[in-house]
Amino acid sequence: MKILEHCARCGKCLPFCPSFRATLKETLSPRGRVALIQRGLLEPYPFSTCLLCGACEEVCPNHLPLLEFFIKARAKSSDLLRPIYPLFFKGINWATKEPPRESEILLFLGCGAKFLYSKELSHFLHLFRSFVGELSLLAGVCCGLPYLAAGDLKNFVKEARRVLNFLTEKKTLLTLCSSCLYTFRKFYPAFLNIERPLSEQILSFEDAIAYLLRSGANLSFPQKVFFQVPCHLRHLKEKPWWREKDLAYYEGCCGQAGTFGWRYPKEALSIAKPLQKAIFSSGASILTSNCSSCLLYLKKTFPQLEIRHIASFLRF
């Protein structure tokens, strides 16, 4: 709570917060949520409408860990969807048919690779093993972000520790989902009581696309392609490799944010309007992203267009 006293109420976060821009409600802004926490007013709506995108933290002049407080406030508020998540994930068959391989490099499959972009995953694996070297697949576990988004800290920590148990030696963990990457880098250190720093347990958490581009790969586009830049990729301050390619792109929120797009369709539609305008004005026939949540949004909103993971355009 003392940390939150450093919120200057300056308002620099307001233009960057998707939920505030969509509603213009002060209680749905970062500084508004801080005020609610300080007053002990932890009603579900103001905190469940936070997209956990990280925009507010990136522009905060006092560098406050706002998302940690918003997640903890969400955990203390009542949420009817919270008990559903453990049941949902228990019903998913996470197994991969590929036998495990021993390698210093791991590719985290998460919940999206097998179901949302299996063809692009196969293409990435073939390319990586042919031109870079061996890598292992880490399947059967979730990064935990869906639990965290529901305010279920107990199951988030449980799932996160399952991931870390596979990382007993120094390795590089790659992921094709930017939200998983954000969770590894941002939320694991914040919410796990880790005896040793993550930097001592694992060599690095890496964006799989950026890793392969640094290894000599290129992105090749046979026709006009539009890239939805995920919030979590942008706010990790990764090198913006998408700006260096012959690629139309939009650096703004799509409004999906896990279950947000289904829970709050009106707000999500308002958030996504600039993105939709950018897509239609680009003239692109193929839409792409590297976030499972963004890909879900693109698939449900633009069924008339071809939707792919950006990995399908990697070439050597």
Shape assignment: globular
Order of helices and strands: HHHHHHEHHEHHEHHEHEEHEHHEHEE
Major sheet: size, sense and barrel closure?
A: 4 strands, parallel
Number of helices: 17
Proportion of residues in helical segments: 40-55%
Rg over C-alpha atoms, rounded to the nearest angstrom: 19 Å
Widest beta sheet: strand line-up: 2-1-3-4
Segments where pLDDT lies below 50 for 5+ residues?
A: none
How many individual β-strands? 10
Distance between the termini: 51 Å
Q: Which whole number gives the mean pLDDT?
A: 88
State the assembly state of the protein chains: single chain
Describe the protein:
About 45% of the residues lie in helices and about 10% in strands. The protein has 17 helices and 10 strands. The chain has about 325 residues and is an alpha/beta fold. Helix 17 (about 290-300) links the parallel strand 8 (about 285-290) and strand 9. The model has no long low-confidence stretch (mean pLDDT about 90). It has a 4-stranded parallel β-sheet with strand order 2-1-3-4.
